[in-house]
C-alpha cells in the first residue's frame, strides 16, 4: 500500500512539473515576441546585416618620366541573385546565359550551369557565386551585355564584385625598390614605406550574411565611399634601370656570383635613377630581386678598398701628406703587432708616390700612412668618418636601412691592428648606398646629398608632400682636399687598377674595391668586389656603385669584375643622355638629299620618324607606325619603308641610334658591344645571317 501511494505521488509531481513547463513555453514565447521583440530583432539584424569595410583603390607609383611602375587593376568575381529576374525574362534567357558561361569559363557544361542557377532560384536563395575565377574589366563589360545580366543588378540580379590586384607593368624591373605589401600590411620598398599615402581610406557598405558564411553587398544610402590612395612619384628612370639590371645580370651569370647590386645617383640632387639587386635563385638557376642589398642590413659589409678614399681625405685634411711624397711599401708585406698586412701584388710596389699608392690600391701604403699619423689618436681619424656622414644611417625614404658599423677606440674589440685594417675597409661595415654617397659628395665638390627615391606624393597636379634635394653635409672636406681626391679618382682609371675601363669619349673617376669575405670566422679567398665612382669626371652628372659578391673564376677582383659593369652602364647612359652627349646639328641637317631642310635620318621607329617629319612640315608616308623603318627621299616626299626586324635572322640596325639598336638586338638574344657615339655605321655580323642566341655582335657608332 505504501509503495502504491509513493508511486502515485511521484507521478503527480512529474505531471505537475510537465504542466508547469508546458505553460512556461508559451509564456516565454510571448515574452520574447512582445516584450523583448525589439531587442532580438536588432540582434538578428546585427548578425545578418553588417557595415563592412570597402577597400580604397591603392595609389599608383610612377617613374620620373611618368611611366607606371605599379598600379591596382580591377578584377571582378561574378555572382547572381537569381530571384531578381522576372519569370518571363528568366525563362527566355537562362539557356543562352548558361551556354555563354560554359563557353567562357570552360569548367562546366551549359546544363550544369543552368541546373545550378535554377536550383538556387527554386530555393529562393539570393546569392550564388557563378565561378571563383576573377575576370578583367573588358570581360566584365562583355558579360554585362549577356541575357539576364543585361538587365543589371536590380532587373537581372547580376553582381560584379570588384577585387583589386597590384600590377607592375615592367614586371621585375626595379621590383625590390618598388616593393610589395602583404595582407598584414608588411612588406618592403616604396609600397611599404609609403603605405600610409598609397592605401587611401577605406569606406563602408552594408552587407548581408548568407548561408555558408559568405557576404552579399546590399546597396544602402548610408554607404561611405572609400577615398582612393595618393600616387607616389619616384626619381627612378626606367631606361637607366633596364640598362643597370641587364649589365648586372650578365656579369653575375658569367661569374656565377652570389648576388650583386648597382645604384645610379644624380650627383647634384641625390636622386636615385636606378637601383638593381639581383640574387641567385635557391634552385641555382637564374637571378631575381629578393632583397635590397644596397640598403638593407644584409648588404652591410666590409667595403674594402673603396674606403681608402676616406683614409686619403683624413690624411689630406690634416695636411699630413702630399700626393707626390714617397712611401715605402717594400715587398708588399708590413707587420702590425701580431698581424701582417699584404698588398694584392706579389712582391709589392717598392717605393712609390702616395698618388701611385692610391691608384694601385696599395694596402701597405695606406695602412702605414694612417697608422703613422693617427695611430696615437685613432678617435681623430674616426672623427673624419663622422664628418663625412658615415657613422649613422641617412634616414632615407625606404624602411630597413642598415646601420653603419665602426669600432670604437678603447672598446673591448679594439686592438692595435684595428686602425690599419679600418683604413683599408676592414673591421667596419657600410652599405653600398653609404659608400656611394661618399663618392657622390666628392663629385659634388664636397656637398653630400641624401639619397632620394621619391619626389612627391599627390594626385594629378596636386601634391600633399614634396621632397626637395637635401644636403646631409654641406662640406665633407676643404675645397683643396676635394680637388686632390678628384685627381686621385681620375688617376685610378687613367693609370691604376681600373685602367681597363678607360673610355676615349668621356672621363670616368672612381675606385676599385676587393674585400676578402669572412667564412666561419676566417678570411677566405672569396671576395666582395666593388667599383664606386662618377662620370663624366670633368662635369659629373651621375655617380654609381657596382657590387658583386663571391664571383668565381680567374682574377676575381674589383677591377676585373665590378669595374667593367660600371663602364657598360656608364657607356650606355652617356650615349642616351642628350645633355652629356649633345647632337652635332651640322651632322643632322646636311644637304645629302639636296635639300638642307630635310634632315638626314638613317633609320628608326615609324611613329617617331613620322612625328619628326610632320613637325618639320615635310611630307612623309609610313606603311605602319609601329614598324621599324628606313627613310628614302622621293622627289619632295620622304617614304618610310619597313625595315624587317622580326625574321629569325640578324637584323639590319645600320643608321639607328644606339638605344634602338640595343633594343632590337638584345630582344633577339644577342650580346652587344659598341664603340663610338652617334648612330650605327657598322655591325660585325651581316644582316640576314642566321641568328644564334648569346652571340656577341660589335657595333661601331659615328
UniProtKB/TrEMBL annotation:
- Residue ranges of every copy of the PASTA domain listed in the record: 644-702
> Which ranges form a coiled coil?
none
The lineage's top-level taxon is: Bacteria
Report the SMART domains cross-referenced here: PASTA
Give compartment(s). Answer: Membrane
Record-linked Gene3D superfamilies = 3.30.10.20, 3.30.450.330, DD-peptidase/beta-lactamase superfamily, Penicillin-binding protein 2a (Domain 2)
| Lineage start | Bacteria, Pseudomonadati, Bacteroidota, Cytophagia, Cytophagales
Can you say what this protein is called? Answer: Penicillin-binding protein
- What organism does this protein naturally occur in? Algoriphagus taiwanensis
Q: Which UniProt keywords apply?
A: Carboxypeptidase, Hydrolase, Membrane, Protease
Amino acid at each position: 500500500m505504501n509503495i502504491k501511494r509513493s508511486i502515485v505521488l511521484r507521478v503527480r509531481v512529474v505531471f505537475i512539473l510537465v504542466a508547469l513547463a508546458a505553460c512556461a513555453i508559451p509564456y516565454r514565447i510571448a515574452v520574447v515576441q512582445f516584450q523583448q521583440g525589439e531587442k532580438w530583432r536588432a540582434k538578428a539584424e546585427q548578425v545578418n546585416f553588417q557595415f563592412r569595410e570597402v577597400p580604397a583603390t591603392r595609389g599608383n607609383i610612377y617613374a620620373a618620366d611618368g611611366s607606371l611602375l605599379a598600379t591596382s587593376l580591377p578584377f571582378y568575381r561574378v555572382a547572381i541573385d537569381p530571384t531578381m529576374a522576372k519569370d518571363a525574362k528568366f525563362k527566355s534567357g537562362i539557356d543562352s546565359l548558361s551556354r555563354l558561361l560554359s563557353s567562357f569559363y570552360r569548367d562546366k557544361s551549359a546544363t550544369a550551369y543552368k541546373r545550378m542557377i535554377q536550383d538556387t532560384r527554386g530555393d529562393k536563395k539570393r546569392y550564388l557565386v557563378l565561378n571563383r575565377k576573377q575576370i578583367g574589366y573588358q570581360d566584365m563589360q562583355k558579360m554585362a551585355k549577356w541575357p539576364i545580366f543585361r538587365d543589371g543588378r536590380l532587373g537581372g540580379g547580376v553582381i560584379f564584385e570588384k577585387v583589386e590586384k597590384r600590377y607592375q607593368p615592367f614586371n621585375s624591373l626595379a621590383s625590390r625598390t618598388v616593393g610589395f605589401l602583404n595582407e598584414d600590411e608588411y612588406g618592403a620598398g616604396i609600397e611599404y614605406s609609403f603605405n600610409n599615402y598609397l592605401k587611401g581610406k577605406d569606406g563602408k557598405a552594408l552587407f548581408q550574411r548568407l548561408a555558408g558564411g559568405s557576404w552579399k553587398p546590399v546597396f544602402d544610402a548610408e554607404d561611405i565611399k572609400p577615398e582612393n590612395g595618393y600616387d607616389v612619384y619616384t626619381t627612378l628612370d626606367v631606361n637607366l634601370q633596364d640598362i643597370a639590371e641587364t649589365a648586372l645580370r650578365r656579369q653575375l651569370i658569367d661569374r656565377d656570383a652570389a648576388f650583386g647590386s648597382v645604384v645610379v645617383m644624380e650627383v647634384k640632387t641625390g636622386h636615385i635613377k636606378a637601383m638593381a639587386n639581383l640574387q641567385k635563385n635557391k634552385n641555382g638557376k637564374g637571378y631575381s630581386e629578393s632583397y635590397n642589398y644596397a640598403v638593407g642590413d644584409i648588404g652591410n659589409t666590409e667595403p674594402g678598398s673603396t674606403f681608402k678614399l676616406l683614409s686619403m681625405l683624413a690624411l689630406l685634411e690634416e695636411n699630413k701628406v702630399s700626393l707626390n711624397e714617397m712611401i715605402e711599401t717594400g715587398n708588399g708585406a708590413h707587420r702590425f703587432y701580431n698581424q701582417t698586412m699584404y698588398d694584392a701584388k706579389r712582391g709589392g710596389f717598392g717605393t712609390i708616390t702616395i698618388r701611385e699608392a692610391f691608384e694601385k690600391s696599395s694596402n701597405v701604403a695606406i695602412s702605414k700612412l694612417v697608422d703613422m699619423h693617427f695611430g696615437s689618436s685613432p678617435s681623430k681619424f674616426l672623427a673624419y668618418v663622422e664628418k663625412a656622414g658615415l657613422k649613422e644611417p641617412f634616414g632615407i625614404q625606404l624602411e630597413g636601412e642598415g646601420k653603419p658599423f665602426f669600432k670604437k677606440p678603447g672598446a673591448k674589440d679594439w686592438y692595435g691592428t684595428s686602425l690599419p685594417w679600418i683604413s683599408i675597409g676592414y673591421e667596419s661595415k657600410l652599405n653600398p648606398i653609404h659608400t656611394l654617397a661618399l663618392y657622390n659628395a666628392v663629385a659634388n665638390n664636397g656637398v653630400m646629398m641624401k639619397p632620394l627615391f621619391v619626389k612627391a606624393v599627390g594626385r594629378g597636379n596636386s601634391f600633399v608632400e614634396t621632397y626637395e634635394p637635401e644636403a646631409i653635409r654641406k662640406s665633407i672636406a676643404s675645397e683643396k682636399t676635394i680637388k686632390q681626391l678628384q685627381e686621385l679618382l681620375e688617376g685610378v682609371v687613367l693609370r691604376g687598377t681600373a685602367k681597363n675601363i678607360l673610355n676615349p669619349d668621356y672621363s670616368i673617376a672612381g675606385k676599385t674595391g676587393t674585400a676578402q669575405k669572412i667564412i666561419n670566422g676566417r678570411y677566405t679567398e672569396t671576395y666582395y668586389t666593388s667599383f664606386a665612382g662618377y662620370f663624366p669626371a670633368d662635369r659629373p652628372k651621375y655617380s654609381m656603385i657596382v657590387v658583386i659578391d663571391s664571383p668565381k673564376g680567374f682574377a676575381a677582383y674589383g677591377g676585373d669584375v665590378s669595374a667593367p659593369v660600371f663602364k657598360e652602364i656608364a657607356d650606355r647612359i652617356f650615349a642616351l643622355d642628350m645633355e652629356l652627349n649633345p647632337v652635332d646639328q651640322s651632322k643632322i641637317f646636311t644637304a645629302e638629299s639636296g635639300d638642307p631642310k630635310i634632315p638626314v635620318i638613317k633609320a628608326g621607329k615609324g611613329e617617331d620618324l613620322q612625328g619628326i617629319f610632320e613637325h618639320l612640315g615635310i611630307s612623309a608616308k609610313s606603311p605602319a607606325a609601329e614598324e621599324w623603318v628606313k627613310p628614302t627621299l622621293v622627289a619632295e616626299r620622304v617614304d618610310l619603308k619597313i625595315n624587317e626586324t622580326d625574321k629569325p635572322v640578324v637584323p639590319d640596325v645600320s643608321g639607328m641610334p644606339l638605344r634602338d639598336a640595343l633594343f632590337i638586338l638584345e630582344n633577339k638574344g644577342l650580346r652587344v658591344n659598341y664603340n663610338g657615339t652617334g648612330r650605327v655605321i657598322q655591325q660585325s655580323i651581316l644582316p640576314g645571317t642566321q641568328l644564334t642566341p648569346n652571340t656577341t655582335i660589335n657595333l661601331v657608332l659615328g
